[in-house]
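Bug #2210: token dump truncated for MARVEL domain-containing protein?
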Amino acid sequence: MASARGLTAVGVPPFPSWIFYIRIAILVLSLVLLGVAAWAVSLFTGGGSAAYGYTGSSGMMVFVTIWSLVVYGGSLGIQFGAPHLFYRIVGLILYSLAVIFWLVGWAYAASQAALVLDWTEGYGGEVHDYGSALAVCAGLGAVAWVLSIIDLVFFILACVREVTAPKLSQAELGQVQQPTAPVAPATTSELPQQPAYSQQPYATQ
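Reproduced locally. Full output below:
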């Protein structure tokens, strides 16, 4: 029966096999977007904004991709390397934050890309390239956001629908007793028959 207690248990829940590929896709997208966002940051610093600690949506996207790499890469490592250390409540918090960060990241990148590309319409240069990089971050970031939602939903479902496996029989420990049928008393017809001895008449003198 479904129970929220599965979210506080320890151990890897019974994921569908295809969830592994969802997480690999998120990791691949994170690596690609980390490169694109880092390149966008390098273009954005031309105005000196990075010197004041502000890198715009490209800096936000760098943070999101690093967070995603740590969360999903680390969870896969624990899942296959040390499943007994997989604390589901921690995973729930980290996956939920990943969904929120991806939403903020791609939405922020999309709004800034639209602004920059509209302002540089018909012109080239680094500013236009920066807007194009943000557009890529917004598009691929939206895909990663959808995948992270799918992963979170099926993570929760796997936890709350976890079926308790039946206890293994302990025959090898000598603790299983075979049921014994009641023994009915034997009837006369079932008793072994004794051989009949014929009596010879005694000889008379």
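Output looks complete on our side. The CA atoms of residues 96 and 152 lie 7 Å apart. Marking as cannot-reproduce; reopen if the truncation happens again.
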